Amino acid sequence: MHMAKAHQIVLSSTWGIRNTFQSLIAILTTILVVSTIYVAQEGGKWSQKRSISAESITSKCNLFNGKWVFDNKSYPLYKEQQCTYMSDQLACEKFGRKDLSYQNWKWKPHQCDLPRFNAMALLERLRNKRLVFVGDSLNRGQWVSMVCLVESSLPTTLKSMRTIANGSLNIFKAEEYNATIEFYWAPLLVESNSDDPINHKVPDRTVRINAIEKHARYWTDADILVFNTFLWWRRLSMNVLWGSFEDRDGIKKRIEMVRVYEMALKTWSDWVEIHVNRSKTKLFFVSMSPTHQRAHEWGGVRGNNCYKETDMITKEGYWGNGSVPKMMRVVENVIEDLKTRGLNVQLLNITQLSEYRKESHPSIYRKQWETLTEEEISNPRSYADCIHWCLPGVPDTWNELLYAYNFYG
Length: 409
Description:
Strand content: 15-25%
Number of strands: 15
Number of domains: 1
Mean pLDDT: 88
Helix content: 25-40%
Radius of gyration: 27 Å
Domain Trichome birefringence-like N-terminal: 60-113
Distance between the termini: 66 Å
Strand order of the largest sheet: 6-7-8-5-11-14-15
Number of helices: 9
Low-confidence stretches: 1-54
Main location: membrane
Protein name: Putative PMR5 domain, PC-Esterase
Organism: Lupinus albus
Subcellular location: Membrane
Structural class: alpha/beta
């Protein structure tokens, strides 16, 4: 009895010591966690500057609200001349631009840092998948940027480019990953008389407002879809066609542009709702890309544009007349409506951050597809491209945002 009792006392004592030890460990762990949390706070707000966890950065930080920071150590993310598939429309250095500081700016959201773009991580995420950009030449520029961002990581024998669908679909393939990064030309998303990828400049633009399947069949099974449409709508009114372009009995009516834009995005959203595999496909819509055609809007000389501009606009919240808020609201409303139907489309709101970058357009530094007249040569402003963007440059940031949403969204 005494032995049993003694044994019980020893066990009880050991258990007590163990409990005390575990309590101390728990207290120390709590102190460490609290200390870590305290250190990670700045001014009472969570700091995400030190590292980005798997927890959604996009839920804690407005990635579209921030400022441009000069960084010539980390940027550009690639060299223009080293990108095998660079477009002559966007290769500003190749066509004579000497001031290259437009390549050295990093977008810095106010509450966090954008995750560093990692080409190999993205390719691994895209293994056996399709990333498809659908839209106009601004979206094509973003596609070229994305290809440039990843292709330098691949040996020549393990990458390829091909074009199908009468030139409308361009397919970059990373062979080892069986991954494609594609661009499909559909400047108004729905069918139009501007759908030819080469000959699309027509004086009287017409859209088949209810017709999208001719385009959509090429991107139905994509895993990531990135849409845009804005620039080609910039006119007061447009022809709307009910019927086919070949049908003489089709009904054609001229309608105010914003209303037509609304109708086209309704057709697009109905297609998305019906055809997209919700468990497989991620959807993005890129907001309007701003133009810099009127220098007086940012305090420059009236009659000038982005020609010879080398500095960005520093006034926070600057918004030029080239961007149309009521068109932006149409996109937001359509996306919100899709959400009520159980479909999530992430708006990549690139408009405000791109508004500041008046110095980052090709201006006169690109291939001229048509021979310039003597009058144009004497007045370079007249043929300066203040719509598209030099690469490396602003569209790389759009892709950094896309990357953040695919990994941390």
